[in-house]
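Notebook, bench 3.
Goal today: get a predicted structure for GPN-loop GTPase 2 from Sesamum indicum so we can plan the truncation constructs. The sequence was checked against the plasmid map this morning, with no discrepancies at the termini. Length recorded as 305 residues. Pasting the sequence as submitted so the record is complete.
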Amino acid sequence: MVFGQVVIGPPGSGKTTYCNGMSQFLQLIGRKVAVINLDPANDALPYECTINIEDLIKLSDVMAEHSLGPNGGLVYCMDYLEKNIDWLESRLKPLLKDHYLLFDFPGQVELFFLHQNAKRVIMKLIKKLNLRLTAVHLVDAHLCSDPGKYVSALLLSLSTMLHLELPHVNVLSKIDLIESYGKLAFNLDFYTDVQDLSYLQHHLDQDPRSAKHRKLTKELCEVIEDYGLVNFTTLDIQDKESVGNLVKLIDKSNGYIFAGIDASAVEFSKIAVGPVDWDYYRVAAVQEKYMKDDEMFDNVESDDK
């Protein structure tokens, strides 16, 4: 079995940064990682890309040839990838023996709660290549500071979960920056656990734009609560402990931890003695050196001192 993550979320939620940091973290704990870029609009990749959809199709070419905008162009690219899924399968097969896969998808949210093409691509890969994938849905944590936007994020998360039908982890990304957007109306637990949403009503009524849609908002909140599926975990991509906690959660959801419990314990023991915070911008430069050293994090810690 091959394990991996389907990284999705709205534009600006930090998907590419996540793939960069997560791939380096996983390599530091001993996993061989392959990042697959399936976003044809992502032309500035900070990570080493094993497979790039631009080798198959380019968004700029699609927009020019078919007179499409970015959104229509991305839908076309996903349709084209689905029809040429053999291209992707042939490039993934050499990685199946010993790699952990990270799929970096486009930020167009319609692809994951409305259109079927991205879902069909994922399902075909799962079926043909025996993959065990978890959808990691990133939502910018700053949306918590605006009750209306937070409800929208909940609806998007719920719709995506129901549409994709995958093991699913919702993540409030950039949690380290949340205080810069102002004081939250409630404790962070309220937003991560998605507690009684009726408490948001008073704050929504303070905004004239939201007040006139009060009844609609109330009904939408009840839909979210009736399903009872949505909650969030938090992530600071530069904090080793935060990333490690998320990896453990993902490993439980896709079964990685059950496929190799002993191996998983060894992996995380490698970072247990390290510093609490890690700078993934620095990791790339020292990664090759310390991966060969059984005491790599002891050495990193002494270097930091």
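The CA atoms of residues 59 and 65 lie 10 Å apart. The radius of gyration is 20 Å.
Flagging this for group meeting.
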